[in-house]
Amino acid sequence: MGDNDADLVRQFVERGYCVVPQCVDVGRTQRAKAVINQALGKGVTPEDARQARKGTWFPELVQDTRLLSVFNAAPRLHAFIKRLLGEDAAPTSAWSCQVALRFPGDLCDELPVGVPTEASAGAAAQESNSGCAVDGHGQGSTSAPGAVLPMFAPVPYFRDMWHIDGFPADGNHNKKGTIRNFTLLVGIPLAPVLEPMRGNLLVYPGSHFDTERYFSEQGFEQALAKGLEALDLRFASSPHNVCLDLGDAVVAHYSLAHSIAP
After folding, report:
1. Which long-range contacts (CB under 8 A, 24 or more apart) does 62-68 make?
2. Residue 235: left if φ>0, alpha if ψ -120 to 50, beta else—which one?
3. Which helix H or strand E contains 67, and what residues bound it?
4. Residues 218-260: pLDDT tens digits?
5. Taking the model in full, what pTM does it have?
6. Residues 119-177: tens digit of each pLDDT
7. Distance between CA 252 and CA 205 in Å, rounded?
């Protein structure tokens, strides 16, 4: 392991997440994407789509070896996780996964045709310090010559829609009174997400310390009884768009608050 891995470990400890570059096989990722696209082609009911946004798309695929192999056959990623967690604590394989799909218009209001708005431009400007490159002619651009006007404007409350996996919340499948925790969150993109506000994973850097402090002081009773929505939890940092290329993976602390970007 080189100095770069040591830097990634420091990032994980301080921020609660890090991006491990080019650590999974792109061919396996593309095969997994083809399997998911095949399922999409068979059709999805409105109720299935509603449920998927609270959990996973295509529950019948979450233990499909063609999807699991993207993680399970990634020795570079496994080596980093072993360095992070220790040889004995690091999982050797995944037995299930979440299919988290994002579509144009998610967490957005639709705009009238041909009408740019300050809301969409402002959202892109606020994300310009997110660590991702911002394309001046992408979502949030104004009417420069030849530019394509945005179809959607992010809903103003999207930055407040954070969660921690495994906690009960409105509409998900976790029963109140239980917390279904796990070792580590690993996200692998099915397509490049190189700019902010493209359905990115949205993280609150350092929030694993905020949640630790809160639960140490307040306990888990409120969260167990009423879900995370009942908690008065504030974070020291603003949300950050995670940008990933094919072959990358994001590794996040279980207690890191996160969401999705429009």
Report:
1. 62/96, 62/97, 62/98, 62/99, 63/95, 63/96, 63/97, 64/35, 66/28, 66/31, 66/32, 66/35, 67/32, 67/35, 67/36, 67/97, 67/99, 68/93, 68/94, 68/95, 68/96, 68/97
2. beta
3. helix 65-72
4. 888 888 887 777 778 889 899 999 999 999 999 999 999 999 9
5. 0.84
6. 444 444 444 444 453 332 233 334 455 555 668 888 888 888 888 887 766 666 677 77
7. 10
